[in-house]
Amino acid sequence: MATITESIKAEVKEIVYNFFAEECETDVSRITNETNIISDLDGDSLMFLELIEIFKKKYHLDIELKTIGKYAVKHPVSTIGQLIEMQLLIIEHENRLLEFER
Amino acid sequence: MPEEVVITGMGIISSLGLSLEENWKNLIAGKSGIRHITLFDPVSCATRIAAEVPAEFEELSRRYIKKRAASQMTRVTRMCVTAAKIAVEDAGISFEEADRTRCSVIMGVVNTGNSSAERDTNLQNTVFKSMTNSMPAWISLEYQLTGPNFAVNTACASSAYAIAFGYEMIRNGQSDIVIVGGADSIINAEEINGFNALYALSVANDPPGQASKPFSGDRDGFVIGEGAGVLILESAAHAHARNARIHAGVAGYALTSEGYNIMAPMKDGEGMARTMELALKNAGVGREEIGYINAHGTSTELNDRYETMAIKKVFGELAGQIPVSSSKSMIGHTIGAAGAIEAIITAMSLREGILPPTINYRNPDPDLDLDYVPNIPRIKDIRTAMSNSFGFGGHNAILVLKKYTA
Asked: Structure pTM?
């Protein structure tokens, strides 16, 4: 379990924004927390998986995909802000994510 | 009353160019697109030549396919999707104004292109790149088309089969528009070594442009080509309703299986002849009406011999009067794309009244004595033409196209 600091929050936000800007060929300034991943950016569900891989490596996370899958079914993500929030929860709770369901 | 089927859009990517116009200009100029291989180092292969798509394709592809989607496609899938988008542009279709439930996609797919020549480190993308349905799926996704979309694999006849099935879906009223065609690229060491082991490929590496010589006495096998061909098939009523330009009409087709040999055509071209006869019957076209045959013409010993015998059997005394040419002399054998690319060339021949030549025809085979349109194009107004495709496994497809007059 990691403590989510302001610095981690900023770092995660920056990574997520830059990832979507790069993959969706859009200017990062056009992305906000309210941006819809599918309808505004033409993104796809695989991007979520790719981001998880990025964060797993960056923060050495011990988390199984099926845990994230179970969590995501109950808490679907559609905006960039929701996605950042979920990534922070994953970083904070790792495999104990389901124990800290909202 | 069955629906009349017409071709309202065409897109072609081959070694001779990235647009219909560029391909046609080079085809009727008798140019060869065959070069030394650059896509991988062929030093271990007996065959070191192929008809590669120009490098500028990468830039063209970026104009038509978003980066995110492109990363989930192989190069050949990108060729297919790019050609499809060019064909849709050519047809002037706005799918917002069409009934998308009546728009379908059928692609001839033999290879996904996920070979050693195209390495990928993203395991998720490996799955998408290996899906044999990816070409029609991406096209359907691009335009949100919700009619049937599927791939058909009958080796070198695949995209001709796709055209036949598309024709049928419009003919019987299931669809208004069907995007049909195919793409292929097997320019990689495993495929070339595999075909070399079958003695199917030319090993006349120098000069490359003279290696593919269909119907010639010194032919020594086919040359692999890569590319994509996509046609927009549409019911004539639908096309007229939106004032579409019509390139040509589709009169009919025949599909047969030889049940004979995994590689060789049936002796004396019996299966090929049966398919041609059936195509004429299905299209309601008399043999005297055929003004041109775009041959399968691979430049292999057996195909060219048997295809010639089949044409003679079907057309009898008329056979010598029908121009027969092989586009493969210029663009190589594009395998899964061949049927569609050659159907486009046939449609252009009908539309423009010009027949592309069989190049490299310098040493006639005394047994093969048809009019192969040797080396230079021919101006000839034709009303009806045939496009032949034959695949390993005994898959035969003959398409009959006609000049369209409203």
From this structure: 0.94
